[in-house]
Records
---
Amino acid sequence: MPDPIYLDHAATTPVRAEVLEAMQPFFGPRFGNPSSVHRWGREARTALDEAHERVARCLGASADEVIFTSCGTEADNMALLGVFRSRRAEGRTAVVTTPIEHKAVLAAAHQAAHEGGEERLLAMRNDGRVDDASFDALVTDEVAVCSVMWVNNEIGVVQDIDALAERARSRGVLFHTDAVQAFGKVVVDARTTKFDLASISGHKIGAPKGIGALYLRRGTPIEPLMFGGSQDRGRRPGTENVAMAVGLATAAELAVAEREHEWATLEKLRDRLEAGLLERIPDAVIHGRGAPRAPHITSVSVPGTDSESLLMALDLRGIACSAGSACQSGSVTPSHVLAAIGVPADLASSAIRMSLGCLSTDACVDRVIDVFPKLIEKARRLATA
Amino acid sequence: MTGERVLVAMSGGVDSSVAAALLVRQGYDVVGATMKLFCHGEDLPDRPCCSLDSVNDARRICEQLGVPHYVLNLESAFGRDVVEDFVSEYARGRTPIPCVRCNTFTKFRDLLKKADAIDAKWIATGHYAQVRDGVLQRGLDPAKDQSYFLWGIDRRVLSRMMLPVGAQTKAETRAIAHELGLELIAEKAESQDICFVPDGDHAKIIARQLGADAPSLSPGAFVSGTGEVLGTHDGFARYTIGQRRGLPGGFREPMFVVEIQPETRTVVIGPRSELLGRGVVAREVNWLVSPLEAGAEVEVQIRHHARAARGVLVRSEADEVEIVFEEPVSAITPGQSLVLYSGSVVLGGGVIETARRVLPILAA
């Protein structure tokens, strides 16, 4: 079998060599606890402070505006629940988000409702963007925080975060964006885009799994999720993961430096992939194509097929893709994102997400263009047999 | 044949794990699949999704065997074909066997489609039964034989089926598991319950689907065979033919449920003698050999752990068969399976519609 093809960069990416190298000392001689008063502690503290500064610079922020978390999910939870809990007293008890968010945001909003708040979901347009009228109707005086994902993880659609953030803030609503898929693809800069909070995740950009960060604009009220020591001003107690923070800082700097080149490279590959697939499967549907999209995600549905069988068949041919979101057991569940943007259930149940990144080449794309249509043809033959 | 692809349905238990391991050893291109059939988890966050541990065990075994593993979501089809039927059968006063329908529709139809999708020539399970030359036969271990549950599958599927543990005893299966180093599952307890009724309380499932005030779960009368009211029961769906538990006491001889009349919510009870039937009618007939004609002598099994009884096929229509027994048979239960054998060969089967207490005039 030819070399396997990894087309699932939106799920996770390999750790970059530069990142691994930057982290190495902190697993070895520089193992200290940043809270310690001695030289080992000071060394670790310096590296951690620098990591804060470096990540902050990548986000157009100050060091104190960056909180390291264990993952994107924690950052999202902290943003929604931390703000909701701190603003309840002022009568802002609603949380607004979209139905196409990552489960981390949806479940956090749900938890806010469970704690007596109100969960409001914005209407989506069929192209995958937030419906403006719905935004105006739901983002009101009772809202503590509004959270809109910058780049959708299933279809790659980019929301107009600049405009949404402005409009939320004009109503006194704090604005959070899950920028996990956006960071490294679009400019995520707190100086030019007026979000109050933003989540990023290390493992989508070549840092390891287990590190993320929350940007928190200075002065934004927030309750911690956990209680313990005074690390990160008590906002995120627990001994800091120095090595991973350094890894995230390194990966973030590389992502920002390479962003434009990365966009151009992936866009070219994506366009080639989509053109190739559409040429051979004329009735294939590429979701979100009518809206601005990030270049690394393609979600394609072919009527009369099912994602589960296709994913297996692709994997057995050495091509790794994904579909919808996976449940605990690892089985494929219908995509809530596609349902929310009005994709009919039978079409949604055939969706395959291909996501490009550092491991993608022209040759990979060409093989997918060759193999995928064959699998589709077979699936359709079986379906009508 | 070496290198041919086989999709193995893996529950995470010892039988299907060993089945997969044996096929790997024989050189097949094994792909493991665990079916996700139901989910208690979504609405009950404190309980794990479906049987997560089983899925994880199957995944770990596949990892150990060096073969791919997938979790296949067959929840909606299983709900429609198996769970809904299970509930509606109980509501009709019958005692269904969901495992039969799961084999017929979920494993050997829906899962087979997944096998097609990945070019798997074969489909394998951990059932204790055997397929030889396109003929389904009892498992070698009489204590474990599961052929009774397989009568409903499409006859054409037999040529693609492999049942690798069917020719050995359970003890041998466990020994092989140890020998192959599958310690994770080698001594795993036997699953006894119906998978989607984990605590054995099927009334709970009925209540969830039909409401706790469904007629089948509402009080009704215990009556004798002569119509005398003997007490009140708490829902006929809690009873099955031949049951003794939960009946009123104070009779000279042991009493059993002998009939359920759903229209009037009546549970008829009587002594052992009233359980006897001389014949049986079954529907949803499926043949695994060329259909037999009326007059054929057959061996008949009317429940999983019953000994096969000798009988004669007196009527054989497309969707209905009727058997007359050589000797009366006890507790013929509507909803259970009627499986016809010739020695160890499974000829076919059907779903028991009714028992014949009194024989019709025998066809010549």
---
Amino acid sequence: MAVQDSPRVNREEVLDMINHVLETLAETIEDGAFPEIGYYGSSKKNVRYLPEDGYVPLNERPSFIDGRKVESAKTIASLVYGLTRFKEHLTQGMSMSLRDFYYMHKVKHVQDVLKISDQSETNRLVNLCERILRIRGESVPREEFGVVSSPKGTFYGDVTLSDLSGKRINCSQAGEYGWFISSRPFDVVIHEMNIDAALLVEKEAMARNLIELGLAEELRVGIGALFGQPGRNMRAWAHRLADEGVPVLVLVDMSPWSLRIFTTIKANSIELANIRGLATPGARLLGLTTDDFWSKDGMLAGIEHSLERMTKSDILCAQQNKKIPAISQDPVLRRENERLLKEQRKGELEAFKAFGLPVRELRKLYIRYIREKARRLDVKLL
Amino acid sequence: MQAARHAPLTDVVELSVSAWFYRNRTIAGFDNPARSLYVSVRELVENSLDACEDAGVLPDITVDLERVSPKRANNRIESEPQVFRLRVQDNGIGIPRDVIPRLIGKMLSGTKFTLRQSRGTFGLGGSLALLHGQVTTQQPVEVVTGTAGATEGTRVVMRLDIEKNEPVVIEEERTIKSPDEHGTAIAFYLEGDWLRSKRKIVEYFAQTSIIVPYASLTFRAPDGRTYTYPRVFHSLPRPPREMRPHPRGIDVETLKSMVTNTRKKTLLSFMTSSFQRVGKTTASGLLRYAGFDPEMPPSQLTDEDLVGLMRAMASYNGFMIPSSDSLSPAGEELLKAGLQRLNPDFVAVSQRAPSVHEGHPFIVEVGVAYGGQLEPGMRLYRFANRIPLLYDEGSDVSTRVIRELNLKNYGLRPDDPLAFLVHICSTRVPYKTVGKEYIGDVDAVRREIQLGLMACLRRIGESVRRKHRAQRQRKREDRLLRYYTFMACILSDATGRPVSTTRLFGGA
């Protein structure tokens, strides 16, 4: 069962939806009834993992906010206030960050009533708005009502595009790491794409080395730096690249945490399953894999000695991974996780440096490693 | 050694009762000027309360404590004791002229082989206070008294001859008064330390007003402040009845005196007439148990026989428990009225059934007050035979019981505004020390206090829970109203039409 991406919503539709919600609430209160708002929460029961789509919402068990309860009334009051803020920003063509939204609750008369003490409260509210505002049966991503994340992640390579700035940019000429990925990748216009694959790297140091060594040009690949756990914009960008027919390869540490990073790109997350366009089911794990170190023909077997012992939290993470559907139901990832638990050692991307090779030789090793591993994944690079 | 053994008889001084007691006055608490001042006030107030209660009148007591020696301007600490004039006036029955000197100026003026609950143990405190005053200031005592119905009262100025334990009247006059007036006013001078005793004296009046809410108390302090506790309860507790002693609570010396004074011809009739709860069957059983002939004349009992009989009485199991008629518990209504002086939100009191310790009956009464004007934290008010106990709280059995209470079980916390009241009345209060300031950890007493307080806490806990429920409900309604008012305001702006919560909250 493949879930098709629905056509994106436009600003007018979102404004109409916000107005509709506000009108309904006003009428309910005027009628002397306490409002009740239904939505689909992010519990495991409302989400299913499909290998070909990642996490998809089932929307079988609705939750309700009952306005007769004090805490629920506070949520609805916050929601009403938030929606009016979104409406105003949308009307003015302005965006806001989650932090901005938090500070909007520090307006004196709002603070006096809602007493918001922590940004996590307003973050939850934004998440709730995404679930309550539904158009054509799907949640409206917060970016559509103006709440955008700070951009996280970069992309380098011969891709020419126009982002929200309207400027025409080539990602290999846009800065040290390339182009700072837009907070709204789905609105980016791609003009030209001269890459055979996109290589998304967990750590920025490794990504920078690959760029500095000219691997993007040598292998005709785009190099993305995830900066750790990928943000929503990076996930959406990977999805966008895959939509454009570019194979997405992911290079992460060999650790239980990095398996989670990879699955976030591949399958999105249970929490954000309601937001479509954040999963790239075709993404493939290029490395580092357990076979690199522990199989006879492993390309990194020579530096097996550099592996470090897993800490208690690493082991706990690996044990919990067994309950994460995107890992436990994926044969490759499940095997990786089991092997890690068995060996209780982990490897980092920086391990390449343990070969002690001169830069020229190290470059060759990187090229050989990426090319060979991509070949094994049926991605042919120059 | 030799010299000591054959000391000449002229070196041996025979002390009168007054002289002996004065030399050993620390037993009664006269050990320093601060304590002496506090004890003097206390003893005279208690004498007055006793006088009123004995007469069956609601006490109306006024105490004036006036500094006589001038206050030293440059001595802020006032380390030296000063002279005060203490005047205590009550509305008791008054004292007939003939007995004034003997009653006021002589110690140990009578004993009887009966028991009943009373505030003092020896009845000496008041006299010792007067004696302390006379010794420290060399000033006489002035007594003004009058009885109901008489048109004349008496004013007597007197002093006590310590060596002879005899009163000496210096001045005496008849005073004109209304037949309705009755009572006694005693005024005397004494050395004391107000600065160091102020806290205790003021606290004494505050606590006394709790345990005797049927009294009207006025205390005019040397610093010009007047502490007034009007009467809030309008009947006296049932007075205690004079009872014969219970065989379990007797010592050999008392037994010997009783045997000496009895007119009964046989041991059997002596037992039944001298002790409470001892009828013919019980007496026969005891004498059989002790190995005495019931027909034996008491006068033939030797000292050894007396010790044997005493031991048999201590170990014999056939006695009924002592009667509680000799006790005068405050009663639940009175305790409630007393605790209301603290202006709490809730009060619960409990009077336990009479119980026995070493042959003496006792009744424990407890109360718990919560909230209102009480300060946060636990406060304990201890009373014994309607006297506040102000010293050594940490060692008292009540403190131990309270420390062991698990307030969480009652939905309460140690920092809640809580006041505990414990009153024990007995013909012999089980004080731990001669200072008589705290009750010993006696199992029977501890159990009664514990059960009483637990019962009170259950009721207080329920009231507090009810109050919290109501508060939570009110708070919930306030918050709902605030959120919906806010929502209505925002929605009015957003939709461009007025949105009201009137129908939602029914006009709120």
---
Amino acid sequence: MALRVHRKGNPWPLRVIAILVLVTAARAWTEQADAGSSASRAPADATPSAAAPDAASSASRSVTDATTSASRASRAPVDTSVVLYDFAQGPALRFCLLAAALGILYRIWQFGRLTRTMRGRYSPQPKQRVFVPARRSPRQRGSIPHPVMRTASLAFHVLLFLVPLLLPAHNMILHRSLHVSLPAIPAPLADRLTAVLVVLGAFFLARRIAVPRVRVLSTAYDYLVLLLVLAPFVTGLMAYHHVSSSRWLMIAHVASGDALLGAIPFTKLGHMPFLVFSRFFVSGEYSWKPGRRAWGRGA
Amino acid sequence: MSESTSRAIMAQRIGRILSRNGALIRLSLQACAHCALCAESCFKFQESGGDPAYTPSYKAINSIGKIYRKNGRLSESEYRAVSELVWDRCALCMRCYCPVGISIPSLIACARNVCRERGVFRTYDGTRNA
């Protein structure tokens, strides 16, 4: 007789609901933004909030696309690249941001379901806690043993967040659309940091190919995810250095950025929320903060 | 008890283990970045002189990962290979370090449970028929 697995925790219905909610919310948001942008095209009576998304689109367009007529009339012959660019930095970006936010919320809920709060401070069964003398000091215990990989990994992950957030061009768009901005770093510095990040990414790629123990673990999916992570940075770097003046480069930049954001909770990039849960909330020898939760459902 | 009945009971028990731990297995396997940074923390890996098959994540992915993906429907030889991974290549000393914080020992222990239900397990000299 064939094995039968009863998956009580099968989240498929939940996923379908989540996707439906996502699509509906993104459509509502897009329609609202469209209404906002059409309202702002009427000269006088545009409310600031409604005008904001349109300001974002026109601002980013004028940044990237200053030579072409930014506010082209809707009756002009349709240029596919303009339509695609507007789609990538408008509805697609909103959809992916929403997907990432809801996906991470789902992961938080899932984490809560898969762990339980412990009664004791460190462990529910203090007698079973085994202390093996560690060769490394407690301060080092929570970090990657290999010094090169520790430095490279830390630099890569910090830059992954800092560069896009502190990039002057991104902050300009953010300021024009939402009237908020983060402190920006000088553009040449951001350029160099991006180069460092791409080099580190190439190093990880080379390591994946060259080191046997990583190679046996690697699948096509791993390479794909690494390339997905590097894509917005490489295209951004190319755009900054005017490798190509084509608008398609910016479309590739924005679209890969969208894909990267949206992919966080649903792919291997899910190690980002997972790391926060496991290293900060779960009690363990390698935790960065002695959490009060343990894996496994409640009794 | 007939052969088919005992196999059905075995299948049911394996199914129960997998369904009880399914969400954690899925989440852990998804979060694993396949970085192989856990290798250095494994004394068996160090002792083997860097054999990739001793990397903790390799052991977890090729034991419980395989079992979970195939719903426990592994052949006898595949189960034997899994048991070699989870008993001979892992001492379950709980010293493996995962940068992402995946509980690799939990996954290996789960694979051991499934193997035991399947009747494949570690035997020690003279204890087989004890």
